[in-house]
Write a sequence for this structure.
C-alpha cells in the first residue's frame, strides 16, 4: 500500500524543517495556508501540491473604500418597541454592532415599519439619519413596532469572529458585492492578476465565494445571530431589482426579515423565498464560474471551502455542476459532515479537515493525552462514514509547530493517515453493499442533503441533537440515504426508496408544517406505505393539528400526540411488547429530549412507554416512546427521539429493516455487536469490520450469505476480510 | 360550641342502631340515601333531616319504553376509515357499546359524512340500517372518512358505570328527554306524585337534572370518552329545531363532533358552541325551575348534586339563580373542590361529601390505618380552603356499616366533625382578610370558576396537574380569587383585580389560543400591567406563534418559547438570580411536567434555569423555569409549571405579592413556615393558623400589623388566636 498521498497539512514561513519531517511521516502530499497565515517562499519544496487561500469579496480595502455603495447589504429588524403614545421613535441600530453594519439611509425605499401586534405594515413614518431613528406618527398605543431596515456590511463577519474570539489584529477587511457592476468587473481582473502573481499555487482554495452566511454581532461585539444557511447578506438593491425584472414581482424586506426569524432552515420556506434562493444560486453560479474559468486558464485547480461565503453555491443544489469546480474541502465533526462532503457530486475530489485544530486551546503543555483522545474519538466517529463513502483526501488545520510538540499525537496521526489511505484504496471506487434505500423527507429535500436540523455548522443545540442523531447513525449504516422534499412526494416517490423517515418538531421545515395539510402528500404517502413500504417518524412527524389529530398520518404511525383536545378519550393501549427492533437494547433507550404526551392508537404495538411516578388512582396512561404499526402491506415505526449512540444506530437499523418488511435479510454483511459495524464491497468481495468503541469487542460476523463467524476486534480496531477468509 | 349539626351521613334499612350511635357521636343532623340504596322506613327517628335521591330523566323504564322517540340523543363520530377504492362502507357502531347507544336511523337528516383528509363534507352517501353502515360512493382513494351520526341513548351512563365497575345488578335505567313534549309534561306529573308519596323527605336531592355529562362506553363496555363538562347528550332533534328557530341559524353535527374533540373545555369554544350552551342553560333552567317550584309547594327543599346530569345548570352560569335551589352538594377531593362548592351563589347552603367513601375498596380488614390516613390527608387539604370560604355542611357517602367496623376511623371523623363545626361557626359569616385580588384568565371565565384544567371530575391527568396546582394553591391562600374571560378583558378589567394569571398549554382554552392574536386583548393587558398591575404566566401563557414570537406577551413575560424558529439567535440571559419570590424555597422547585425550550429575553431576570447535562462546546443556553420581568410600573412572573405543594403554594403567594408590587405588605396575617398558613377575620378580629402537614411545625406568626410571635403547631393542628392574645 502506498504510504504517501491524500493528506494535506498546514504550514507557515517559520516552520519549514519541522514541516518537512512531519510531511514525510504523515505521507502528506499537499501544503496549505490558513486564513491569517502566510505560506513560506520555498513552499514548492515541501509537497507536490500547494493550496492557497483566496477571497473574492474581501481583502482589498482600497477597492472597498473606493466603492462604498457596492458593499453587501442585509435586511435587519430593529428591536420590538412599544408605543406608549401616538409618536414613537425607534433607534434602528439598538442591539447591533456599529463596526459591522450601518443603516443604508440612502435606500430607505426598501425599509418597512410593521405593527407586530396586528401584523400590519404602516406608512406614517419617516427616517431621521442624523438621530439614527425612525419616527412613527399615529402609532397605536400598546402596540409593538419594528423597523425592517437595509444595512451596509462594513466588516467581514468571519473576520470579526476571529478578531474578537482569536484576538486577531490584522487589517479589518471590508466587503464588496459583485452584484454591482464595478465590482463585477474588478473581481475578474483581480483573479487574473492574482493567478499571474501566484505561480507556486496549484490549488486556489476559495474561502469562499460571494455571500457570507448570516452572522450578525450585537452591540457588545458578541455573536447575535448565526445561520449557516442564511441568505441574509444577499439582499443588495442590485439583486432586488434584477429579481423583480426577471420574476415579475417585487420582494419586500419582510420576505427576508420574516418576523425576526430570517428564513432559518427550520421555517417551512415560502414560495417567494424559494424563488430568491434559486435566483441567487443562478447569479452566484454565473459569476463564480467566470473566476473558475480564469483559474483553469492559469493551469490551477479551483477548490471550494464549504463554509463562510458559500451561500448560493450549495453543493447539492441544481446549479452546482455548472461551477466546474475541481474540489471541495470542509471540516469534519463526525459521520454527518463526512457524508455531507464525500457525497458532493461534480467535483474531482473532496477533502475533510479533521479535528482537533492545532490551536493553543488544545495544544498546551500537559494536554497531549487529551489531544490524542480527541483525535481518536473523532477518527472513530468519522471512520464509520468513511467506509461507507470515503473522502478522497484528509487534512489538518492550525499551527503545525504546535502539534509537533506532542510526539504521541504526531505518531497517532501518522497511523490514521495510513488507515485512511488503506480505506480509500479499498473502498474509493467500490460501491458498498446497501441492503435498503432510506429517504429523509423534509421541506428542503436534496439541496440540504446531510444538513437537516443544523443551525451553526457542527454546533450542538439542545433542540436538535435528538434528530441530528438520525443522520449521524445513518452516516455509518449499510443503507443508501436520499433526501427528498414534499414536492418530490407530490411528484411521485422514486422507485428505489424502501423507507421514508420524517423527523422533527411540529411546524418546522424538518417535520413539514403545513405540507401535512396537503391531501396530495397524505394520499401519496398512504398509498405508498400500504403497498409495502416503511415509514419512520421521529419526534413530531407529520404534525399538523387539525380535526382531532395532531399527527396527520396518525393512522400510519399508530400514535398521536395529546395537545389537550383528546384528554377526554380513554387510552388503553399501554402494554409494552418485546420486538425485533429492540432485540439489541441493553438497559434504557436514550431518546434525548424525547417527546411528551404521545399515546398509541388501537392496533399499534407499544415497544416502550414511560409512566409518570405521580400517576394516581390507576390512571396509567403513560407516554409512548417507541411504537410500531402495520398499515396495509406496509409498516411504520414511531421513535420519540434518537440522539446518536451505538445502541441507537442499531435500533434505527433494525427499525429500517423491520419497516421495510425485510427483517429476515438484515443479518447479511452484518456484525452482531452494536459497537461494531460491517461494510461489504461486492465488486472486490471484501468486508470491513470497524470497532467504533475504545474497548475490545467480541462480535459475530455474518457474510453476505448469512454465514457466521466469531470475531474479536481491538479497541478502535478495523479488520478487513477477503471473501476467501470467510469460507 | 354546638357539637351537633352541619353533618350528613348515609344509611340504609339494615343498619338502624349503628346509624343512631354514629349519628350521635358525629353530631349528624341529616340522613341520606345513596344511588342504589333504600332508606329505612323509620328514617325520621334517625335525624332532623332526610335527604332523598331523585332522578328526573331516568328511573321509570315503562315511560321510557312507551316513548322511545323521546330518548336523549348524542352526536358521535364513527371510526376514521380509509378509502381504498371509490366505494367505502363505514360501520357506524364500531367501537361503541350497543347497550348504551343505537344509531338514530330515523333522523339521518342530521348525519354528516366528512372527508377528514381535506376537511370537506361530502354528499354522495347513503345509510343502510339493515347492514348498520353508511356507504360512500366516489370516495377519494387514501382519504379518511368519518360519519357523524345521531344516536339514541338507551341506558344511563352513570348507571352503566356502576353496573360495570361496582357490579350492580338492578334494572337498567333507560332515559327520557324533557325537551320532547310528552316527557316535559310527564316529569312534572311524576315530581308531584313523588313528593306526595314521600312525606318523610325533607330534602329532594336531585341527581341531577336533565342532561348527563358526556360519558360514552366502548364495544367492551369500558369507558371510551368522559367529559365532565360535555354537552354531548343535549342534542335532541327537538332542541336543534328550537335552537334554529330562536337563533336563526342551524347547528350541524360537526359543531358538536368537532373532529372527535367534542368541544372539550380544553378547546377554545366557538361562537356557535357558546350559543348552544347558553340556549341549553336557558332550557334547563326553565324546565327544572318548574320542578323546584313543585318541591317547594310540598314544603321540601331542593338540593342539586353537582355531578351526573348537571349540564346546563352550571352554578357559576348566568341562569343559575333562576333555578331557585336551596342547596348544592358535591364531593370534595381537595381545596379546589371545596371552593368550587363553597362559593356557589344563590343557594342557602352548600354541602361537601368527604373522602374516603365507605366502600369495600378502602374498608377491608386490616386497612384501618390507611383509611384514617386518607381521611386526615383529605381533611388537611380541604381545611385550608374551608378556613378561607367554609362549606355550610359536610357529609359522607357509602355504607355506614363498613365504617363502623373501624373504631379509630369513627373516632377521627367525630373529631373532624367538631373541628369543621368550629371553623364554620367562627368563619361562616366573617369575610377573611384578603391582601390582594387575583384573576384567572382563560377562555371560559366565571362559568368555569374553580374548574379550569379539569377533565373528569377529580381525576388526575398527567397533562393537567402542573396547572391544577395553581388553583389548589389559591384555594387556601389569603387572596380573593376571580375567574375572567377574554371577553371580560376586552370589556375592561375590573378595578379590584391586582394580578392576572394565565396558565395552560398552547392552543388550549386555558392558555387562550387565538384570543392572543386579538390586538384588543394584547393592548388592554399591556396597558393595565404597565399601569402597575401584576401578570403571572404558567406553562405556555399567551401562546400564539406568530412573527417570531411564541408568547404574544413575551414583552411582558420577559421570556419566550423556542419552537425552532429563533435557534439562530444567541441567548445570553442565563444567570440565575436570588429573589424575594424564591426566599422560602428549600431544595429544588417542583415544576411538575414543566416546560421545555423557554428562554429569557434581555432585561428579564432568571430565577431558575436548567442546563442539559449534554451541553457541549459551552453552549449553555439552558431552559428557563422561573423568571421575572418589569413592565412599566407593572411586573410579571413566568413559571414553567406549578403542581400543588406547600412550597409551591408559598412560591405562588410570593409571586402574587411581588408582581402586584406589594411585597412589603405580605407579612401581615402571615405564617412564615410554608407548611402552615394564616387566615384573619377582621370582623371578629380572630386569626386561625393551620398546619397542613402531618409533622409538628415551628413558625413565626405575623399579625395584621406585622407584629411577630413564635409558634409551634401540632401535626395537622389548627390554632385560633384572638386579637388580645397577640399583644
Amino acid at each position: 500500500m502506498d504510504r504517501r498521498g491524500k493528506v494535506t497539512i498546514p504550514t507557515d514561513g517559520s516552520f519549514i524543517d519541522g514541516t518537512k519531517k512531519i510531511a514525510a511521516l504523515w505521507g502528506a502530499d499537499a501544503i496549505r495556508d490558513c486564513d491569517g497565515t502566510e505560506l513560506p517562499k520555498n513552499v514548492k519544496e515541501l509537497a507536490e501540491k500547494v493550496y492557497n487561500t483566496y477571497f473574492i469579496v474581501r481583502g482589498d480595502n482600497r477597492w472597498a473604500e473606493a466603492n462604498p455603495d457596492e458593499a453587501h447589504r442585509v435586511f435587519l429588524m430593529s428591536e420590538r418597541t412599544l408605543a406608549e403614545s401616538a409618536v414613537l421613535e425607534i433607534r434602528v441600530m439598538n442591539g447591533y454592532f456599529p463596526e459591522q453594519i450601518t443603516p443604508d439611509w440612502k435606500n430607505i425605499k426598501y425599509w418597512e415599519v410593521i405593527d407586530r401586534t396586528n401584523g400590519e405594515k404602516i406608512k406614517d413614518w419617516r427616517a431621521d439619519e442624523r438621530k439614527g431613528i425612525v419616527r412613527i406618527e399615529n402609532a397605536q398605543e400598546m402596540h409593538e413596532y419594528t423597523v425592517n431596515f437595509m444595512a451596509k456590511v462594513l466588516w467581514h463577519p468571519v473576520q470579526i469572529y476571529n478578531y474578537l474570539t482569536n484576538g486577531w489584529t490584522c487589517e479589518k477587511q471590508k466587503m464588496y458585492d459583485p452584484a454591482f457592476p464595478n465590482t463585477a468587473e474588478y473581481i475578474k481582473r483581480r483573479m487574473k492578476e492574482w493567478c499571474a502573481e501566484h505561480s507556486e499555487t496549484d490549488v486556489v482554495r476559495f474561502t469562499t465565494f460571494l455571500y457570507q452566511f448570516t452572522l450578525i454581532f450585537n452591540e457588545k461585539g458578541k455573536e447575535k445571530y448565526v445561520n449557516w444557511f442564511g441568505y441574509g447578506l444577499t439582499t443588495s438593491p442590485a439583486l432586488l431589482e434584477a429579481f423583480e425584472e426577471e420574476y415579475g414581482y417585487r420582494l419586500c424586506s419582510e420576505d427576508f426579515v420574516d418576523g425576526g426569524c430570517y428564513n432559518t432552515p427550520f421555517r417551512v420556506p415560502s414560495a417567494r423565498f424559494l424563488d430568491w434562493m434559486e435566483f441567487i444560486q443562478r447569479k452566484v453560479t454565473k459569476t463564480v464560474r467566470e473566476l473558475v474559468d480564469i483559474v483553469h486558464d492559469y493551469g490551477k485547480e479551483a477548490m471550494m471551502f464549504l463554509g463562510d461565503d458559500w451561500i448560493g453555491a450549495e453543493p447539492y443544489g441544481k446549479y452546482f455542476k455548472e461551477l466546474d469546480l475541481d474540489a471541495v474541502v470542509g471540516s469534519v465533526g463526525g459521520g454527518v459532515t463526512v457524508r455531507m462532503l464525500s457525497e458532493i457530486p461534480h467535483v474531482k475530489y473532496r477533502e475533510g479537515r479533521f479535528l482537533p485544530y492545532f490551536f493553543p486551546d488544545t495544544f498546551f503543555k500537559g494536554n497531549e493525552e487529551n489531544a490524542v483522545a480527541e483525535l481518536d474519538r473523532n477518527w472513530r466517529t468519522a471512520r464509520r462514514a468513511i467506509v461507507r463513502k470515503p473522502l478522497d483526501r484528509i487534512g489538518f488545520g492550525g499551527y503545525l509547530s504546535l502539534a509537533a510538540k506532542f510526539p504521541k499525537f504526531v505518531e497517532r496521526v501518522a497511523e490514521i493517515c495510513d488507515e485512511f489511505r488503506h480505506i480509500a484504496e479499498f473502498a474509493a471506487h467500490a460501491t458498498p453493499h446497501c441492503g435498503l434505500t432510506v429517504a429523509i423527507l423534509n421541506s428542503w429535500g436534496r439541496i440540504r442533503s446531510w444538513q437537516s436540523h443544523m443551525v451553526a455548522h457542527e454546533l450542538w443545540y439542545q433542540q436538535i441533537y435528538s434528530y441530528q442523531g438520525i443522520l449521524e447513525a445513518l452516516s455509518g449504516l449499510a443503507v443508501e440515504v436520499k433526501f427528498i422534499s414534499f414536492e418530490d412526494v407530490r411528484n411521485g416517490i422514486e422507485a428505489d426508496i424502501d423507507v421514508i423517515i420524517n423527523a422533527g418538531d411540529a411546524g418546522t421545515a424538518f417535520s413539514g408544517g403545513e405540507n401535512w395539510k396537503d391531501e396530495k402528500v397524505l394520499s401519496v404517502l398512504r398509498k405508498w406505505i400500504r403497498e409495502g413500504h416503511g415509514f419512520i417518524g421521529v419526534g413530531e412527524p407529520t404534525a399538523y393539528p387539525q380535526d382531532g389529530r395532531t399527527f396527520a398520518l396518525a393512522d400510519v404511525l399508530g400514535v398521536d400526540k395529546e395537545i389537550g383536545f383528546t384528554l377526554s378519550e380513554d387510552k388503553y393501549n399501554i402494554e409494552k411488547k418485546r420486538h425485533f427492533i429492540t432485540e439489541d437494547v441493553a438497559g434504557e433507550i436514550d431518546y434525548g429530549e424525547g417527546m411528551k404526551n404521545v399515546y398509541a392508537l388501537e392496533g399499534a404495538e407499544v415497544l416502550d412507554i414511560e409512566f409518570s411516578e405521580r400517576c394516581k388512582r390507576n390512571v396509567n396512561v403513560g407516554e409512548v416512546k417507541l411504537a410500531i404499526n402495520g398499515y396495509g402491506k406496509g409498516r411504520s415505526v414511531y421513535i420519540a427521539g434518537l440522539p446518536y449512540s451505538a445502541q441507537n444506530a442499531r435500533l434505527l437499523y433494525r427499525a429500517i429493516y423491520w419497516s421495510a418488511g425485510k427483517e429476515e435479510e438484515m443479518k447479511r454483511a452484518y456484525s452482531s455487536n452494536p459497537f461494531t459495524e460491517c461494510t461489504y464491497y461486492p465488486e472486490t468481495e471484501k468486508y470491513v469490520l470497524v470497532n467504533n468503541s475504545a474497548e475490545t469487542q467480541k462480535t459475530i460476523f455474518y457474510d453476505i450469505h448469512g454465514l457466521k463467524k466469531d470475531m474479536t476486534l481491538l479497541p478502535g480496531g478495523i479488520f478487513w476480510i477477503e471473501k476467501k477468509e470467510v469460507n
Remarks:
- Chain A has a mean pLDDT of 95.
- The CA atoms of residues 261 and 267 of chain A lie 8 Å apart.
- Chain A touches chain B through 79 residues (CB under 8 Å).
